[in-house]
Amino acid sequence: MSAPIRPNILGMTPYSPGRPIEQVQRELGLDHVVKLASNENPLGPSPLAIRAAQAAAETMHLYPDAAAYELRRAVATHHGVEENQVMLGNGSDELIHMLGLLYLSSPEDEIIVGKPSFVRYNAAGYLAPCRVVEVPVNDQLELDLDQMVRHFSDKTRLVWLANPNNPTGTAFSCAALDRMLAELPSGATVVLDEAYFEFARDYPDYPNSVDYVKTGKSVIGLRTFSKAHGLAGLRVGYGFASSAVVDAFHRAREPFNVNSVAQAAAIAALADSAHLERSVRHNSAMIEALSQAFLAVGARPYPSHANFVLADMGEPADPLFEALLRKGVIVRSGTPLGLPKFLRVSVGTQAEVAQFSEALNQVVKERATV
C-alpha cells in the first residue's frame, strides 16, 4: 500500500485555464474560434524575441545556464536594481509557489489574500498548509487594503496583492500601500504581484515594487514576460527582493528552472521597447472597445488597468458564456470566482474584439426573445 497523500492536497481544486481553441472546435464542430480568456498578448511576441528563440533552439541539447546570468543582468540593468535582488522563475507562478515554501512553515501561519484575486496565492497557503484569510474586494471591486490591515496579526506571514488585480482589473495607489506598510507586523512581507504592470503605468500614484525593494521595505515584487511581452508559452517570471530573500530562493529552487530558449527570448523582448509600446497602445484601444461592447448591451464594465475587462451582466453569466462559446468566442465566466453574474474578456486583435462584440449583441438579443 502506498503512502497516503496529504489531505490538504486532495482538498485543492486544480487550476482551470481557459478552454483550448482545438477542444471547442472539436466539441462544437466550429471552424473558426477566437480565445479571449487567458489574458495573452494578441500581437504576439517581439520579432527580436522570435529570432532569439530560434537561434537558441539550435543548442537545446545543452543544459541552460542555471544561474541565468545574462537574463538576470538584463533585468537588473533595465530596472535599476542589483543582480542579487533579482530572482527568475518558470513563470511568476513558480515564484508564488516558492515564496510559499520559503515563508510558510506552520499551520498557524496566516496569509492574507483578496477575494476574488489570483487563485495561486490561495494555493500557496493550502499547500503549506496554513490559514488563508480572504478579504472581499470593496463595492468598486478594488482590493481593500485598509480592510486587510484589520486582519493583521502576529501570525501574518504573507500579504498577496495583485496590482492591477486579476480578475477585476482594478488598481490601488501608493498612498493605500503606504498605509498598509505602516501597519505591517514585523514578521510579515507584502508580495506585490505586478503581472500587468506595463498596462497600468499611467494609473495615478501607481506603486512600483522596485522603489520599495530599493528602500528596504518588507516588499517582494513579481513581474512576468507572459503578458505585455507576449512570451506566455515560454514561461518566464521574475521578481525583485532583498539579497537575503533572493539567496534563500536560489537555495530552494529547482536547478535549470528557466530554459535556454526562454532566457534568450526574454533578453531580446526586454530590449524591444517599440514592440512593448505597440502592445500597450493596442491594449488601451481594445479595453475601450470591449467596454463599449458591454455598455451597448446594458452590462456594467468595470474600469480595467490590465489587459481584460470584467463586466456585470445583470444576469447569470454561465448561460451567456455557453452561448458565446457556441458562436466561437471563448471568454471566462465569473462563477468559479464567486461572481456568478460577471464575464471576463481578454483583449484580442481588433478583428477578434469585433467578433466578440457582434456575438455578444446576438446572444443578448436571442435571450431577450426567448
The share of residues in extended strands comes to: 15-25%
End-to-end C-alpha gap: 56 Å
The CATH architecture of the largest domain would be 3-Layer(aba) Sandwich
CATH superfamily of the largest domain: Type I PLP-dependent aspartate aminotransferase-like (Major domain)
- The count of strands amounts to 13
Whole-angstrom Rg: 21 Å
The helix count comes to 15
CATH class of the largest domain: Alpha Beta
Biggest sheet: strands, sense, closure? 7 strands, mixed
List the helices and strands and how they pair.
Elements: H1 7-10, H2 21-28, E1 34-35, H3 47-57, H4 69-79, E2 86-89, H5 91-103, E3 110-115, H6 119-127, E4 131-136, H7 145-149, E5 156-162, H8 174-183, E6 189-193, H9 197-200, H10 209-214, E7 219-224, E8 237-240, H11 243-252, H12 260-271, H13 273-296, E9 300-301, E10 308-312, H14 317-326, E11 329-330, E12 332-333, E13 342-346, H15 350-368
Parallel strand pairs: 1-11, 3-4, 3-5, 5-6, 6-7
Antiparallel strand pairs: 2-8, 7-8, 9-10, 10-13, 12-13
Helix pairs in contact: 3-12, 4-12, 5-6, 13-15
Account of the protein in words:
Helix 3 (47-57) runs antiparallel to helix 12 (260-271), helix 4 packs parallel to helix 12 (260-271) and helix 5 (91-103) packs parallel to helix 6. The protein is an alpha/beta fold. It is globular, with a radius of gyration of 21 Å. Strands 2-8-7-6-5-3-4 form a seven-stranded mixed beta sheet, with helices on both faces. The protein has helices at 7-10, 21-28, 47-57, 69-79, 91-103, 119-127, 145-149, 174-183, 197-200, 209-214, 243-252, 260-271, 273-296, 317-326, 350-368; strands at residues 34-35, 86-89, 110-115, 131-136, 156-162, 189-193, 219-224, 237-240, 300-301, 308-312, 329-330, 332-333, 342-346. It folds into two domains: 7-44 and 274-368, Aspartate Aminotransferase, domain 1 (Alpha-Beta Complex), CATH 3.90.1150.10; 47-272, Aspartate Aminotransferase, domain 2, CATH 3.40.640.10. It contains 15 helices and 13 strands. Strand 12 and strand 13 form a beta hairpin. The longest helix has 24 residues, at 273-296.
